[in-house]
Design brief:
This protein is an all-alpha fold. Helices cover about 70% and strands about 0% of the residues.
Length: about 200
């Protein structure tokens, strides 16, 4: 799951949403240097990632990725699912429109005093250009993957142009996502309630 999906799956608590969005920037054992509530959000992020990796629909999406890019299939599917979530937002968040959700999220993130430094440095640009809502446009998903290929992955990789695979198999990825997301919402709710 990528930023938008983690933010929705984290539920209503601002610290859970912050941990969900910033979770990939936190390494090591928890709580580490994090406050307890933010560490709980990161722990939820990790549980959702583990759940996604084992879900048949998510596995089906990874299998749709070409052999050339299969090593990076999880990254690609995470971004593809954020696109599909943004596209189908009203199905999964009927009470709050996507622009209102992302605006509130960016404000909550900015108010968090203990965000990981690497994420805190990215947040202003994320908010300024509304990355999360921009994922509705496949062109922005393509841009994100191309930038990741150039700047975030240290070795040569085939991620540039990877959004073409979403377009080539759009109906399949969409069907997988629509099968996965209700299960993921139920799982995340169960984890939050069991704490």
């Amino acid at each position: 799951m990528n930023y938008l999906a983690h933010a929705l799956l984290a539920g209503p608590a601002p610290a859970d949403r912050a941990g969900g969005v910033a979770g990939d920037f936190v390494k090591g054992l928890l709580p580490g240097a994090l406050p307890a509530d933010l560490a709980a959000g990161v722990a939820l992020h990790r549980e959702i990632d583990a759940y996604a990796d084992l879900h048949p629909a998510f596995a089906a999406s990874r299998a749709r990725v070409s052999p050339l890019r299969r090593r990076y299939g999880g990254i690609m599917v995470d971004l593809f699912y954020d696109h599909l979530l943004a596209t189908h937002w009203a199905l999964f968040s009927p009470d709050v429109a996507l622009p209102q959700f992302t605006a509130r999220l960016y404000a909550e993130l900015a108010a968090q005093p203990a965000l990981p430094a690497a994420f805190a440095s990215v947040l202003p640009k994320m908010a300024q250009t509304d990355w999360l809502a921009s994922y509705r446009d496949v062109g922005n998903v393509a841009l994100a993957l191309d930038r990741m290929a150039a700047y975030r992955i240290r070795r040569d990789n085939p991620l540039a142009g990877a959004a073409g695979e979403l377009l080539d198999h759009y109906a399949g990825f969409e069907a997988d996502f629509l099968a996965f997301m209700p299960d993921a919402l139920a799982y995340a709710r169960q984890v939050r309630l069991s704490r």
